[in-house]
């Protein structure tokens, strides 16, 4: 392993690629780089066809100071960024932009390092005028991955130089695992292949599936549109710009169709992946089955870099959509609303409903009922909403895509604000018994002054899974709700303020953990500081996952926060996470 000067970041001589502006990192302009290291970078750049890039913060054009040096403001670029700061389709095209911008920053620094605008008002000059923009937790360099060989070159480079790696697809991660100070990032967003095969046969297997095969960088909305054109439905996420074949399915992948059709890990039938030992492998039930098990819920980046995956489809579905919303007026309206939802969700789960609840808004779908039965099923909620002057729509739509385009693009999770979540899977026993319903309703009511819980009815409650096939926590199978509460940081939050918010979040979500002993949480949307995360995310599957990790990554080249086999919070890779006791 080459000797690297202290905490030296990725750096290249200007000669490596003038056209890309590849140069010394702004965090280290001393020029104190070994000839060996510069040679290794130069060789890597040549190997990947000149696609080694220098990263800059997304917001950099608005700032006149960058890493302590005066720089010109690009007003036209700044105007575009301000106008599109919370637009996921704009952010996703920039490597330096993450959907949850706090992951761009180094929150643990005494004075947090970053380069953020005010998400409440991106034109607020206090965020950028006279402020030092810093690279923060953004990887200083990245490879725009175009092929298997690019990934293999990066793994070889990391092993040779000791430079750590991170993997980014679309940047939706809530826990900062797709960024990383001083890492070399592998940006897989450009892997956009997509195809359909009505008789797809995984390599080495005899069983065939109607399946769609997608590259790691294909957008979820693009998969929905493609599937609809071939009269199919795929089970996926509730957002346009999620990478369908990336961290979404690797961490489990819930959908509001999951109650009937399962999680994303239940739907995947084959994965092609470069494992940390540099081998391009095909994983399915018939070959590398241990790796296939790990990729079906073990979490993104830990077991390799996915190139493509194949997923079972359903025919085009007729969807019943229930969209209810009201404006609370009485002080106890929300508490009564959540109580009504708790009291009805066991029946709804057994009828096949799935959906999202955000305060006084409910959006649910059902692929099993006809419209008359859907109206009857939703009557209690509809009556409650109408009594408060709200709106009720319960309609039949001809396809999943029709529902997605009409309702999801305006209701999907916000990007741009700095948010952190605390989450818990809530088991059926809380909904099927009077004591359980009462306990849950009382806890939600007591939580409302802090935050309105966000509910995803996206658990595979009716789906008959193949026992032992996936590695997500078994708690998914008996849960009816995935509940989350959130806190929001500001662009200029101090470390003390940020720490206090994390601690307050911990205090409130712990009450839901205490209510549900033995349950778990969702890896992709978990608490940054989830205690006993191995049990929460994977339960009894963790030991097997750890064995698979050690088999395919014996040198620990791929590591990420609270991932399987991680090196722990004291590792330098996690220097930007605030140490918090849980």
Topology:
Blueprint: H1 35-47, E1 52-54, E2 65-66, E3 69-70, H2 75-83, H3 88-91, E4 132-133, E5 141-144, H4 148-161, E6 165-168, E7 184-187, E8 194-200, E9 209-215, H5 220-229, E10 232-233, H6 247-250, H7 258-261, H8 264-267, E11 268-274, E12 280-283, H9 289-295, E13 305-312, E14 314-315, E15 319-325, H10 333-351, E16 354-358, E17 361-366, H11 371-377, H12 379-387, E18 391-397, H13 400-411, E19 418-427, H14 429-432, H15 434-447, E20 454-457, E21 479-489, H16 495-515, H17 533-538, H18 542-552
Parallel strand pairs: 2-4, 5-7, 6-7
Antiparallel strand pairs: 1-5, 2-3, 8-9, 9-13, 10-14, 11-12, 11-13, 15-17, 15-18, 16-17, 16-20, 19-21, 20-21
Describe the structure.
The protein has helices spanning 35-47, 75-83, 88-91, 148-161, 220-229, 247-250, 258-261, 264-267, 289-295, 333-351, 371-377, 379-387, 400-411, 429-432, 434-447, 495-515, 533-538, 542-552; strands at 52-54, 65-66, 69-70, 132-133, 141-144, 165-168, 184-187, 194-200, 209-215, 232-233, 268-274, 280-283, 305-312, 314-315, 319-325, 354-358, 361-366, 391-397, 418-427, 454-457, 479-489. It has 582 residues and is of the alpha+beta class. Strand 16 and strand 17 (361-366) form a beta hairpin. The chain is globular. The longest helix has 21 residues, at 495-515. Helix 15 (434-447) runs antiparallel to helix 16. The two termini are 36 Å apart. The chain contains 18 helices and 21 strands. It has a 7-stranded antiparallel beta sheet with strand order 18-15-17-16-20-21-19. A 5-stranded antiparallel beta sheet has the order 8-9-13-11-12. A 4-stranded mixed beta sheet has the order 1-5-7-6, with helices on one face.
């Amino acid at each position: 392993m080459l000797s690297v000067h202290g905490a030296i970041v990725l750096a290249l001589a200007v000669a490596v690629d003038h056209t890309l502006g590849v140069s010394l990192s702004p965090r280290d302009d001393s020029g104190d780089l070994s000839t060996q290291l510069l040679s290794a970078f130069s060789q890597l750049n040549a190997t990947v066809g000149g696609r080694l890039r220098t990263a800059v913060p997304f917001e950099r054009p608005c700032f006149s100071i960058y890493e302590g040096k005066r720089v010109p403001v690009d007003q036209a670029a700044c105007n575009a960024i301000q106008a599109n700061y919370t637009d996921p389709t704009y952010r996703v095209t920039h490597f330096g932009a993450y959907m949850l911008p706090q992951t761009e920053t180094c929150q643990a620094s005494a004075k947090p390092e970053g380069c953020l605008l005010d998400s409440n008002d991106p034109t607020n000059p206090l965020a950028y005028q006279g402020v030092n923009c810093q690279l923060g937790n953004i990887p200083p360099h990245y490879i725009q991955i175009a092929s298997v060989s690019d990934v293999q070159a990066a793994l070889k480079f990391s092993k040779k130089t000791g430079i750590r790696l991170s993997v980014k697809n679309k940047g939706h991660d809530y826990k900062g695992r797709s960024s990383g100070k001083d890492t070399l990032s592998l940006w897989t967003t450009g892997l956009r292949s997509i195809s359909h095969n009505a008789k797809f046969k995984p390599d080495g297997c005899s069983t065939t599936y109607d399946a769609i095969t997608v590259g790691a960088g294909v957008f979820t909305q693009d998969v929905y549109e493609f599937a609809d054109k071939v009269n199919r439905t795929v089970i996926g996420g509730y957002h346009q710009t999620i990478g369908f074949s990336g961290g979404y399915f690797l961490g489990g992948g819930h959908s509001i169709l999951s109650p009937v059709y399962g999680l994303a890990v239940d739907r995947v039938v084959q994965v092609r992946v470069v494992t940390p030992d540099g081998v391009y492998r095909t994983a399915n039930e018939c070959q590398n089955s241990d790796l296939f098990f790990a990729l079906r819920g073990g979490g993104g980046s830990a077991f390799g870099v996915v190139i493509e995956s194949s997923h079972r489809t359903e025919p085009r579905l007729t969807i019943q959509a229930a969209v209810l919303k009201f404006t609370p007026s009485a002080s106890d309206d929300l508490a009564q609303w959540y109580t009504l939802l708790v009291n009805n969700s066991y029946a709804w789960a057994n009828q096949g409903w799935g959906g999202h609840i955000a305060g006084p808004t409910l959006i649910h779908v059902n692929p099993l009922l006809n419209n008359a039965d859907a109206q009857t099923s939703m009557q209690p909620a509809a009556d409650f909403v109408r009594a408060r002057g709200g709106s009720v729509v319960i309609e039949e739509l001809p396809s999943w895509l029709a529902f997605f385009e009409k309702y999801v693009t305006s209701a999907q999770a916000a990007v741009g604000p700095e948010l952190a979540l605390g989450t818990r899977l809530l088991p059926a026993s809380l909904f099927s018994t009077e004591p359980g319903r009462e306990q849950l309703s009382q806890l939600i009511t007591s939580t409302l002054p802090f935050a309105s819980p966000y509910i995803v009815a996206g658990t595979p409650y009716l789906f008959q899974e193949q026992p032992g096939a996936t590695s997500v926590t078994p708690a998914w199978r008996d849960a009816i709700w995935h509940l989350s509460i959130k806190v929001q940081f500001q662009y200029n939050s101090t470390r003390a303020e940020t720490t206090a918010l994390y601690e307050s979040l911990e205090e409130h979500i712990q009450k839901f953990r205490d209510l549900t002993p033995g349950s778990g949480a969702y890896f992709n949307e978990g608490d940054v500081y989830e205690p006993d995360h191995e049990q929460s995310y994977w339960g009894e599957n963790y030991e097997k996952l750890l064995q698979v990790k050690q088999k395919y990554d014996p040198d620990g080249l791929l590591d990420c926060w609270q991932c399987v086999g991680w090196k722990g919070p004291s590792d330098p890779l996690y220097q930007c996470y605030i140490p918090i006791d849980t």
